[in-house]
Amino acid sequence: KPFNLESDLMLRGCLLQLAADENVLLVVMHHIASDGWSLGIFWEELTQLYQAVKQNQVGTLPELSIQYADYAIWQRKWLSGSVLDRQLNYWVQQLAGANPVLELPTDRPRPPVQSYRGASHSFTLPQSLSVELQQLGRSQGVTLYMILLAAFQTLLYRYSRQEDVIVGSPIAGRNHAEIEGLIGFFVNTLVLRTDFAGNPSFEQLLKQVRRVTLDAYAHQDLPFEKLVERLQPERSLSYNPLFQVWFNMLNLEAGQLKLPEIDAEIISITGGASKFDLTLYAAEQENGIE
Q1: Within 106-180, where are the H helices?
Q2: Helix 202-218 and helix 127-140: axis angle, to 10°?
Q3: Nearest partner of 74 among 148, 201, 175, 190, judged by Cα
Q4: What is the pLDDT of residue 259?
Q5: In sequence order, which residues have a C-beta less than 8 Å from that of residue 13 and are 6 or more positions away?
Q6: What is the DSSP string of 112-133?
Q7: Global pTM?
Q8: How confident is the model at residue 268 (pLDDT cuts 50, 70, 90)?
Q9: In this structure, what DSSP letter does residue 241 have?
Q10: Nearest CA to 32 among 63, 72, 61?
Q11: What does the pLDDT read at residue 234?
């Protein structure tokens, strides 16, 4: 059931009773009002309220010092003038002359209009390899995110035969203590560009990826839509502007629902959709990197 962004609440809940001792709580949030970080907050607050009701108490949560609207107003005021110019100038320079499309060698031609039909495949890297990657990161002064991004972009370079490889990646956007406890959409999109000209070694590539990602973090506040508006790339219904491949390192606490006298588990639902040509999600698990 779609949301009407003008009139609907951006949160829906429905309890489905399957048996006397088995229920499914179906929670739907529109992405315009929440992000991955928000889910952990939501589960924590739901747990607190449930425990209060269970003890015949009135469930209350601490007053928020600011609301999402306060943040939105502050952002609009702050992201203007010289601050906006500095952020824009970095990205314009960083993406100058970028190849508009990363052409992957797919078995079918790109359709004139994206269908977003997709599927997913999951696998886990051996724990021994995960440990070795962590050791590599410490020796090279890079994070696991940077290593996996560099490896992923290397594969994209190999299969596309394009030396200019651009990947989109999210950043939490919660760089102020006051908004850490807010449910809302704070995520922004970073456009990460890697140059494979001259056939660099992987060590050289890691240094380049480290520099690019750290510079991107330093200029993370420019909303992606403002960047697209400024660059005005050639638009097409067949591919996403600026990048067509997405990389997301999931390092959030997905949240565990710890309710008294209830065994609860989170059920993942896959909708069979793909926002981009290709997406790679990575997450550190106890048995290795998934």
Answers
A1: 127-140, 144-160
A2: 70
A3: 175
A4: 84
A5: 25, 26, 27, 28
A6: SS---B---------HHHHHHH
A7: 0.90
A8: confident
A9: S
A10: 72
A11: 87
